[in-house]
C-alpha cells in the first residue's frame, strides 16, 4: 500500500509525531474511538512507541457471537529508525492475543522535491477457526485498506495545515 503526501520527507516524521496533528487525524477516522500513547522511549538507534487504540466497526455475522464491540482494542507497537526513515510495526490485539497477527514495515521515501511516498508492507494472519480464518482475513484486509486510505487523506490535510502554520 502506498500513499503520497504533500510534505517533504524531512518534515514528515516530525509532523507524524506531532500530537495536535495525530489527535486531529484520529478524530476524523471512522473506526477509531480512542488513541492513547502508553509508552514511548528513545532506545538510541530507534524510538519505541506503544499506543492503545479502541475501535468501532460493524462486526461480521460469522463472528458476532464471539466478538463484541468492546473487544475492538489493540496495541500498535512501533520502532522508528529516524536515520533510515523506516518503521517496524506490530498490531497486538488486547483480546485474541496470539490469534491475530499483523506486522510489517513502513518506509518513507522522498517523492520529488517536496513530497513523501509512504510504503506500507505487512502480513496479516488469523488463527481462530479454520472454517472462518480466510473470511476474517479478507474482511480485516478490506477494513485496513479502507481505513488507511481515509487516514492518508486526513493525515495529508492535517500535515499540510500544520506545515503552513509553521511557515
What are the segments in which pLDDT stays under 50 over at least 5 consecutive residues? none
Shape: globular
Number of strands: 7
Compute the CA-based radius of gyration: 17 Å
Oligomer: single chain
The H-and-E topology, N to C, reads as EHHEEEEEEH
Major pleated sheet: 7 strands, antiparallel
**Count of domain modules:** 1
Overall pLDDT, averaged? Answer: 88
| CATH architecture group name | 2-Layer Sandwich
Helicity range: 25-40%
Order of strands in the sheet with most strands: 1-7-6-5-4-3-2
CATH topology: Alpha-D-Glucose-1,6-Bisphosphate, Chain A, domain 4
Q: Which secondary-structure class do the elements indicate?
A: alpha+beta
How many DSSP helices? 3
Per DSSP, what share of the residues sits in E-state strands of 2 or more residues? 35-45%
N/C terminus separation:
30 Å
CATH class categorisation: Alpha Beta
